Each structure stands twice: as C-alpha cells, then as structure tokens.
C-alpha cells in the first residue's frame, strides 16, 4: 500500500512539474489598443510604448510572444481573464490593483475635459457641472469607470479613442476626457487642428501612472523577469527617452 501511495505522489509531482513548465513556456500574449502610444502600421503594432515593451521583452530574454492591437475592452478582458498576458498602456488605479501584476510605469498622465472651441455654450467649472453634459468615453477605460463612480449618467460609449473624438467633432457628445498628448495625436490622425479643441477642466483625481501590467495568472517567475528588465530600461533613461518622442 505504501508503494502505491509513493507511486501516486511521484506521478502527482511529475504532473505538477509538467503543468508548471507548460505555463512558463506558453506564448506570451501582448495586447494593447490604438492610442498615442501604440498603433497598427502595415500589419505591425508600432508606437513609443510598443517599442518600450519590445525592448523590455528582449532584455528579459523572451522571444516567444505575439503582439496584437484590440479595442480596449477586448484587450482589458483578455488580460483580466487569461494567463500569460501583458497589457499596455494601462492606468494603475485602486480598482485594478489586485486584478493585475504591475511591471512598471511608462509615464504619468493628466486627463482633462475637452470641448470644441466653437461651443461657447459649454462651460465647466466643476466636476458636477460636467455631469450635465453628454460625455464621450471608451468602453472599460479608467475614465469611464471613474466618471461612473461619480454619478455621470449621460455618457456615450465608444470602442476606441478615435471614434470617441469623432463623436465630439460631429456633436454627438459635448465633452471628452483625455490627456493632451492623446488629444494632439488623435487630432492629427483625423487631420483636424488641435486648436479646434479647448481644455475646460482638469481631472486631477485621474492624474495617475500609465503602466505596463500582466495578467494575475501569469507565473511570478515570468513577471519578475520582465519587471527586472523594465526597471533596468527605466533606470538608464531608455523608457523616458522613448516615451518623450511624439
């Protein structure tokens, strides 16, 4: 009987080791959205944050990965629900803290409400006043989550940042929350002058770090390797230099 138990223990240990090795060897999914930090060009994901991630993975010795651009809600769900997923760029908030493993900060962002400059009837001096207007947001974005928590009920949800800005331009919404960098790049993508927009209210509570993160079910050894590689690039100034590029 003792030999049988020992045999079972050996088999169980071997099985656990195989599962662990498979998890560590699994192809890493790298997911992002179309933004001022990442975009799709000729079938390849590019952008300043994408470069940071590629350099980080190279420094970590990870070559088996697949980088894909999705609508934000899809990218967010993949990273929230699946193992071996790296997601970027993502606001680090208290509501997300325990749902992901955090690799490192790309930069801090300072979102503001923007309106069309020609809309003299839109005037915002407080968050409460902003709630009276229709606000465009991106599905499952931290700004949508924040405004919902503040009781905003007149929100129009888009799948991505460009669609959100289009709704502002066509008058479907009256305000959109975004950092200046994002606003400038989205205007350039739509071939409209940034000066057509006007910032009307700073969302100070949303001034937070924009991060690279990993799914909670990713093995700690993988996270630690990637985190250490990112930290080296951050320390030697590579991250800041790349992110500063427009």
Topology (elements, then pairings):
Layout lengths: L1 H24 L2 E5 L6 E3 L2 E3 L1 H12 L5 E5 L2 H10 L3 E7 L8 E10 L2 E5 L10 H4 L4 E4 L3 H8 L5 E4 L2 H9 L6 E3 L1 H10 L7 E6 L5 E8 L4 H16 L2 H6 L3
Parallel strand pairs: 1-4, 1-5, 8-9
Antiparallel strand pairs: 2-3, 5-12, 6-12, 7-10, 7-11
Helix pairs in contact: 2-8
Strand content: 25-35%
Name given to the CATH homologous superfamily of the largest domain: Periplasmic binding protein-like II
Helix content: 40-55%
Count of all domains: 2
How many beta-strand segments? Answer: 12
Describe this structure in words.
By secondary structure, this protein is α/β, with parallel strands linked by helices. It has two domains: 113 residues, Periplasmic binding protein-like II (D-Maltodextrin-Binding Protein, domain 2, 3-Layer(aba) Sandwich); 95 residues, 3-Layer(aba) Sandwich (D-Maltodextrin-Binding Protein, domain 2), CATH 3.40.190.10. It is built from nine helices and twelve strands. Strands 4-1-5-12-6 form a five-stranded mixed beta sheet, sandwiched between helices. The protein has a three-stranded antiparallel beta sheet with strand order 10-7-11. Strand 2 and strand 3 form a beta hairpin. Helix 2 crosses helix 8. The protein is globular, with a radius of gyration of 21 Å. The termini are far apart.
